[in-house]
Design goal:
Elements (H helix, E strand, L loop, with lengths): L10 E6 L4 E9 H7 L12 E7 L2 E6 H5 E2 L4 E2 L3 E2 L6 H6 L13 H13 L1 H6 L10 H10 L7 H31 L10 H32 L4 H6 L6 H31 L7 H50 L1
Antiparallel strand pairs: 1-2, 1-7, 2-3, 3-4, 5-6
């Protein structure tokens, strides 16, 4: 996106570290800065469009060029606008942190929120300490854009899913397999592990993952029904989950962990039958299981979203048909 396409109140981001994560901020104008902020908060350089951001040093106002530049190589990234009120399918297909299901406020409200937080001494002290989970640049920009606080950033949620998958389906499996490898080296059936051990341990890891995911989604569903007056806020903050999304996530988790179980075993067999010294049997099991989990969740998610889209379109078509019939009867 070129600078000319940026607007006041935009929630913008740039990629960092070879697109591993994004850095976020809120666009304000020179007029906002001069009229609504005390001079002690004015930066040395002021341009027509500026950005309020939060980083390791706390809140600050920077130029567009300072925002897009990544040190130490001074590489200039393209500035992009985060999309709000995104379609479910687009939200699912895009990287976290680039779009949100929640609708954003008006540009005046977004700018007012950003300036209010920036100019308030207590808020500046709160945002002075960077926290990957609770206080980061994405959360600052999201709070300014929606008025929703205490929300986990989309990038953090994505990272939690990856860590959870690796830990549950990988590390637990790895620890168990290491002990059995030591016990069964003499048997040499498949790289020192018997078939029954492989099946049992991989099944136990997949079952543990399924139970934990079911528990987490069930807690979010409970919050959805138990706090009806705060349902909208809890959904936006990812504390709650709708019944339809709950069913979809449970199906995805089931197929994901089933795929993990199968491909973890396939990983050990692959290591045993292919000359591949760079990877241990345990590492092969973790790697293949993790790939299977991600692939199965992605495929089943696409299928579920397509089915939901078709049902929604069919329902809308039926409603239009009923309205047409009713109109004809009245006329």
């Amino acid at each position: 996106m070129s600078d000319s396409n940026l607007s006041r109140g935009d929630h913008v981001y740039v990629w960092r570290k070879i697109r591993l994560y994004q850095h976020h901020g809120i666009v304000i104008t020179k007029k906002d800065l001069e009229e609504k902020l005390a001079k002690k908060f004015h930066p040395m350089k002021i341009e027509s469009l500026m950005i309020i951001e939060q980083n390791l040093d706390g809140l600050r106002i920077v130029t567009l060029n300072e925002f897009r530049t990544e040190h130490p190589f001074n590489y200039e990234h393209r500035i992009s606008r985060a999309n709000y009120g995104t379609d479910v399918m687009k939200y699912y297909l895009n990287r976290r942190g680039t779009c949100y299901l929640t609708k954003c406020l008006s540009e005046n409200e977004i700018v007012e929120n950003a300036i209010r937080i920036f100019s308030d001494e207590n808020q500046r002290e709160i945002w002075k300490t960077y926290s990957l989970v609770l206080k980061n640049c994405e959360q600052f920009a999201f709070i300014c854009s929606t008025n929703l606080e205490h929300v986990l950033g989309e990038q953090v949620l994505m990272g939690c899913n990856v860590v959870k998958s690796v830990f549950i389906n990988g590390m637990y499996n790895a620890v168990e397999c290491i002990f059995h490898i030591l016990q069964c080296l003499a048997e040499q059936v498949i790289c020192g592990i018997t078939i029954d051990v492989i099946v049992k341990e991989n099944a136990l890891a997949a079952l543990t993952s399924s139970v934990l995911e079911a528990l987490l989604y069930s807690v979010r569903l409970f919050i959805y029904y138990y706090y009806p007056d705060k349902r909208k806020e809890n959904l936006a903050r990812k504390y709650a989950i709708t019944p339809h999304d709950y069913i979809q996530q449970m199906i995805q988790a089931g197929f994901g962990n089933l795929s993990t179980f199968g491909l973890s075993i396939a990983g050990i067999i692959f290591k045993s039958s292919v000359f591949f010294n760079a990877m241990t049997p345990t590492a092969a099991s973790i790697f293949f299981g993790f790939l299977g989990y991600l692939a199965a969740r992605w495929i089943t998610g696409l299928i579920a979203l397509e089915i939901r889209s078709l049902k929604s379109a069919h329902k809308m078509e039926n409603n239009n048909t009923v309205k047409t019939i009713v109109n004809e009867i009245h006329t």
